Q: What sequence folds into this?
């Protein structure tokens, strides 16, 4: 019976740690850095500076009513015709957009003329198996041997974060 209790406690702790882990390891990126989300900024340069992984969050900051943030299809990104191909749009002026999937994303501002004026960018979100930004090996999974179990990189990255999470847990819990 006591063994079961210990196992249950361990499992619960692991679950809580995992939840904290996801938050601890996700990064929030201010779109445009100090320039925020505005006209006259090259956002392609900005997006290419960063290495995005699943769980990261984009933060669009702008004066409400002057701009918006639209996730669009690649076609709409190219044409800047946001009368079609808008997947989701945000207009609060302080928009947080979670990058929940490992895929390409395209964003534009739908205010007339702004997309053509440069308020557009694309980015690629990776599964998160690389802990070092700019590691080009992570972009070539097809060339790697499949001997390692799927998600092995995740596991290692998770372990590193778990150590940090457990460390912070001990500050708050009486054991
Ligand atoms: Cu705009």
A:
């Amino acid at each position: 019976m006591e063994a079961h209790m210990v196992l249950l406690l361990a499992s619960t702790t692991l679950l809580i740690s995992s939840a904290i882990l996801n938050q601890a390891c996700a990064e929030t990126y201010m779109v445009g850095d100090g320039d925020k989300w505005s006209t006259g900024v090259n956002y392609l340069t900005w997006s290419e500076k960063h290495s995005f992984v699943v769980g990261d969050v984009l933060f669009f900051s702008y004066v409400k009513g002057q701009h918006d943030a639209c996730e669009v299809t690649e076609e709409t990104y190219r044409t800047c015709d946001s009368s079609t191909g808008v997947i989701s749009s945000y207009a609060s002026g302080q928009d947080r957009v979670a990058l929940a999937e490992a895929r390409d994303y395209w964003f534009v501002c739908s205010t007339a003329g702004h997309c053509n004026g440069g308020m557009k960018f694309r980015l690629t979100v990776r599964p998160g198996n690389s802990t070092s930004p700019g590691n080009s090996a992570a972009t070539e999974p097809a060339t790697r041997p499949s001997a390692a179990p799927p998600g092995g990189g995740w596991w290692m990255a998770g372990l590193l974060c778990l150590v940090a999470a457990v460390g912070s847990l001990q500050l708050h819990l009486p054991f």
Q: What stands out?
A: The two ends are 21 Å apart (CA to CA). The chain is about 35% helix and 20% strand. The longest helix spans residues 2-25. Residues 132-155, 157-175 have pLDDT under 50 and may be disordered.
